[in-house]
Every structure is written in C-alpha cells, then in structure tokens.
Write a structure and sequence with these properties.
This protein is α+β, with helices and mostly antiparallel strands and 560 residues long. It has three domains: 1-26 and 292-405, Rossmann fold; 30-85 and 106-290, Rossmann fold, CATH 3.40.50; 412-542, Alpha-Beta Plaits (2-Layer Sandwich). 26% of the residues lie in helices and 27% in strands. It has an eight-stranded antiparallel beta sheet with strand order 18-17-23-14-15-22-19-20. The protein has an eight-stranded antiparallel beta sheet with strand order 27-24-26-25-29-30-28-31. The longest helix is centred in the middle third of the chain and has 17 residues, at 235-251. The two termini are 13 Å apart. 48% of the residues are buried. Mean pLDDT is 85; it is low at 1-16, 57-73 and 549-560. The structure holds guanosine-5',3'-tetraphosphate. Guanosine-5',3'-tetraphosphate binds next to helix 3 and helix 4. Guanosine-5',3'-tetraphosphate binds at residues 34, 36-42, 60, 63, 83, 105, 156-157, 159-160, 272-275.
Length: 560
C-alpha cells in the first residue's frame, strides 16, 4: 500500500504498553525545500524565532553569525553563502515537539537533500513570489510527491512587487500538478503589503515591520468588514481583495485534510519571511494540519508503526568533524518506532552486528546535548560507530530492514591526488571518511597501473567540498584533475569478471569498481553507451546500482 494511503488510515489503536501515544502525536518532523535564494534560511530562522528557539533573528548584520550558530555551520557555506550540509533543529512549540531538518538548497547537493527527505513526514516548500516555481523547487517537489508526503507552501517576499497571487496558485496546479488551497490571502503587495487575511479564522492580520525583521512583527487582528481595513488598504486594494476572496470561495479548492495528508493538495500561505509576516500563521497551521510520524513499510512488506514497542530507525546521514571541538563522526538516525533509550543495544540489520547506543546526542547546529530518550519522528546523532553506513537499519527487531536510500547517478568525474606523499595517510583516512558520508562517490579504474581515486558527483561543487574538507579537517592538500567521463552505468552483478572485455569499450571508456565493490562502466559521452551495449548485448546496465534500487526511484515511497 503506498505510504500516502496508509497514512490517511493511520489512527493509533489502543495505547501501547510502553509507548506513550502523546509523545508520537505531538511530533512534527519536516524539512524546508526551495530553489536557492527563495528564502529557506530566512524562514528557518523565523520559525526558530517564533518557536522560541532563537531570541533574535535575521537582522542584516547579525544574519551570517546567526547562521553559524544555527543551521549553517560549515565555513565553506558561510564563504559562499550557500547551504551544503544539513543538520537538525529541535524545538518545542505550543505543546508540539518539532524536528526541523535542514536541507542544502544547491542542486549539486541534491543527493544529500534526498537523503534528508527520506527522514521527514512533511515539507514546507518556499517559493519566491516574484519568480514563481523554479527548477530546483520542481525537482524537490517531485521527490516529495513520489513519497506522498504532505507539502505546505509558503509564498515568500510579498513585500516586493511579485506575480499576482492567483497566478501563483494556478502555477502550483498547472506546473506542479498539485491542488492549491489558499489558507491566507495577501493584503496588498510590495511596499503596500500590509498583512494577510486568514481564510480559516476569517480574520485580517495587519503587521508592522520591525527593523531588520529581528523581532516578532506586531500584529493587529480585525474583522474583514471593519472600517480600519479600507482605511489601511485604500478603496482600490480593498475592493480587489474582496473580489479575489469571493473568487476563491467560488472556484478555489476547499481545505481537505485527507487530500493534504495524501500530498494531493497543498495549503498555501502568503507572507514575507524577512519581515516576519505570516510566519506564525504558517507555523500554527503547520503543527495543526501536518502529520505525526507515519508508519513505514519495509521492502519485505512489514508495516512498522510509530507506536510499535520495539525501537527501529535508519541512518540517513553521516557527518564527521561537525564541530572542530569534537572531531568525531556522527550518524544521524531517524527513529521510526519504539522508544530510544541511551545505552540500549540494537542490531544493525545489514550485518547482524550488535551495537550499544551510548553516545547519543541531540544537535542544534553546532551545539550538542546528550539525549536519553526519543520517540518516532526524532532524530538522534550517534557518535563513534565507524562501521555504520548511510541507509543502515538499527533495530531491536532484526527482522526489520528499511529500504536502502537510493543513490543518484553521477554526472561529473575527476581524479583526486594527494599532493604530498608525507601526508598520504591523512589523505587516505580523510577520503575514506568523506566517501562514507556520501559527500561524493568513489571509484577505482579496473586494471589501472596506478590506483588513483576517481571521484564521481552529481555536481562539481561536491568536489570543492571534498578538497576543502580534506585540507581543513585532515591537513591534506589535494589536486583535482579532470576525468574525461560523462556517463556512468552500473553493470549487472550477474556479469562475471571474464565477461568484461576492455576491447569492447569505446575509446575513452573504462571499467571501474565502486566502494561497494560493484562494477561500473564509464563513458566519455552519451553516444558511447549504445556503442557499448551493441557490442555487449548480454551485459545489462543501469543508471543506479542494481541491488539498492530494485525497481525505480519510486521504491522509496513505500518505505520512507
Ligand atoms: P535560501 O536559504 O533559500 O537560499 O535563501 P535565503 O534565506 O538566504 O534568502 C535569500 C535572500 O532573500 C536574502 O537576501 C534574504 O534576505 C532575502 N529574503 C528572504 N526572505 C525575504 C522576504 O520576505 N522579502 C525580501 N524582500 N527578501 C527576502 P540576501 O541579500 O541574499 O542576503 P542578506 O544580505 O539579506 O542576508
């Protein structure tokens, strides 16, 4: 059963003996997705401000420091102003426990974003109202849609002249193919953006701007027909808003909780993150209408419910050296069922090894705190288990094994050399760690005279991160040489070594082996693949590893 259908029918049965349902009911685990620059970081900060986790946010000069203290922690991110690595922000709001998972916005880090999205129960999609739906939003949206997660939309930057709100709603339907239900409606736009009308509560919220949007925006709430509305908006805007509201009532999508939870209808909020307009409304509606942690289905068809008594979770991210003061390796685990207790012993379902989860942390940006207990929806960071990999299931019931997290097909390739032989050990250690984290994929060319690391990535910025981190964290200077490959395909495991004939490769092609020991074939261009398959009709190729992606990308829908 697809997750969305299952979730719609999920109503926790009787109170389990060991798992307090209230703990599950109050958890909200989500990520924000957007095209770079639409305002994801700003909205994250503002949610933290309204959630009481930050005292001050967003003032222009403070902004970069605030980022360092919260979601973006890597120096390279600050330097380039992009978000690369992601972390988890947990805070309590209005009785809810919120786990906000940060995702990198840049397309070169899509694979990392994808992994994070396997660990959430819902997303907030931020759209720049002047630009509408952009490429990266579309791609991330597709991933979320396939997984059937509820999507809440925040139309940002209404304080700037932008596209007509009706047009933006239409785009959601025509470009993304999702129904859109306006939860609020903007009152004016650009410099005349004064507030929003809450369609659910039938209230007008007028906001005041605060310097740099550092504090909560003072709000006054009045009835739509109150005299002050016309005074503040002017006759023309008031009439326009009234007309639009009437149109929405007549022709717009009505709110439908089931469709929202199934990912078929997105509740839309208009606002301005930098001015704090509409942020609280989004947060309040999100905690109320979004979903608690949902059951997951393993590829073996086992349904794992959040209130099942045994602990289970999966590793969706590994990161070393997050904090220069704690040079260690953290595996991030999304809890799917049961109760996490520090010091508990679990099994790694991949290899059957038992491990004690003693060094468990809650992370808030760079800050970390020991965590003793957790429930489905929570993310915990476990330190010090070198053999744990991305995608591993850690569980008290070894029969459970969640699906592996699919990899992306690399499109960029480069050879990496350690510059100094004196630092070769550091280079090897560092590279091994970064490969385990999945920062890039690593390959070795088969039958090559010299064993040089060939890096494969979705986007070239990933190489930059590798070099930067090897230098900064391991003191290993490196040189990157371009590799003349453009296409990589995995070779079916049924193919034996003897069947791989170098002579059948097109000029500039190569056989290589990935870190998992799978054989791949590299082509200098798209034209070379048909050339190869013609000469090797028995060799089955795939854009993704055979064992981790049994059917297609969609396989995660049922499991994550
Ligand atoms: P991202 O994480 O999605 O990449 O976007 P980010 O929040 O960094 O925002 C990108 C730019 O958009 C920032 O400007 C930010 O201040 C601005 N922005 C965010 N929300 C709003 C809004 O509601 N209205 C307006 N007008 N701008 C908004 P910047 O100049 O790149 O950075 P900064 O100097 O403001 O820090």
């Amino acid at each position: 059963m697809p997750l969305r259908d299952l979730a719609a029918t999920f109503d926790p049965p009787c109170e389990s003996m060991t798992i307090p349902h209230e703990e599950i009911r109050r958890r909200r685990t989500f990520a924000i997705i957007s095209h770079p620059d639409a305002g994801k970081t700003t909205l994250t900060e503002k949610l933290l401000l309204y959630g009481g986790a930050l005292q001050l946010a967003g003032s222009v000069n403070e902004r970069k420091n605030q980022r360092a203290a919260t979601s973006d922690w890597m120096e390279i991110e600050r330097k380039r102003g992009i978000s690369i690595s992601s972390t988890v922000l947990q805070f309590d709001y209005d009785g809810y426990r919120i786990n906000l998972l940060d995702t990198p916005g840049h397309k070169d880090f899509s694979e990392d974003t994808y992994r994070v999205l396997t660990a959430v129960d819902a997303v907030v999609m931020v759209i720049d109202a002047a630009k509408g739906i952009e490429t990266q939003t579309r791609k991330l949206f597709e991933i979320c849609r396939r997984r059937g997660v509820p999507i809440f939309t925040f139309m940002n930057k209404l304080d700037r002249p932008g596209r007509e709100p009706m047009e933006l709603l239409d785009d959601l339907e025509s470009v993304l193919g999702i129904g859109a239900c306006a939860m609020n409606w903007p009152l004016g736009m650009g410099v005349d953006f004064k507030g929003v009308y809450d369609r659910m509560k039938k209230e007008v919220h007028f906001f005041e701007r605060t310097p740099g949007g550092a504090y909560r925006a003072p709000v006054s709430i009045v009835d739509l027909h109150d005299e002050s509305v016309k005074k503040r908006l002017g006759t023309a805007t008031t009439e326009q808003v009234m007309g639009e509201l009437e149109m929405l009532e007549g022709a717009g999508h009505a709110y439908d909780a089931e469709a929202v939870l199934a990912g078929k209808l997105t509740p839309v909020f208009f606002g301005s993150a930098s001015n704090n307009f509409g942020v609280q409304m989004l947060l309040d509606a999100f905690v109320k209408h979004s979903t608690q942690p949902r059951p997951r289905i393993t590829p073996g068809g086992q349904i794992v419910k959040p209130d099942d008594p045994f602990f289970s979770g999966f590793v969706f991210k590994i990161q070393a050296n997050m904090d220069p003061n704690h040079r260690d390796r953290i595996a991030f685990i999304r809890i799917c069922s049961g109760r996490f207790e520090r010091d508990m012993v679990v099994t790694n379902a991949r290899d059957g090894h038992k491990l004690r989860l003693s060094s468990s942390h809650k992370l808030f940006g760079q800050k970390r705190e020991t965590v003793d207990e957790g429930f489905a929806g929570d993310v915990i960071g476990i330190v010090g288990h070198a053999d744990v990999r991305i995608g591993d299931t850690l569980t008290e019931d070894p029969s459970i094994q969640f699906a592996e997290i699919p990899r992306f097909t690399p499109e960029c390739f480069a050879f990496l050399h350690g510059k100094s032989t004196a630092h070769f050990k550091r280079f090897r250690e560092g590279l091994e760690q970064l490969l385990q984290e999945g920062v890039v994929q690593g390959l070795y060319i088969r039958k090559a005279v010299q064993r040089v690391a060939l890096l494969a990535a979705v986007g070239p910025l990933q190489f930059e991160v590798v070099q930067y981190r090897l230098q900064g964290e391991y003191g290993a200077e490196t040189r990157l040489d371009p590799a003349g490959f453009q296409v990589m395909r995995w070779v079916s495991p049924a193919v034996t070594e003897d069947e791989l004939d170098e002579a059948t490769l097109p000029s500039g092609g190569a056989f290589a082996v990935d870190t998992e020991g799978h054989t791949v074939v590299l082509f200098p261009g798209p034209w070379a693949e048909p050339y190869f398959t013609e000469r090797n009709p028995k060799i089955l190729l795939s854009a993704l590893p055979f064992d981790t992606n049994p059917s297609s990308d969609d396989s995660t829908e049922e499991t994550a």
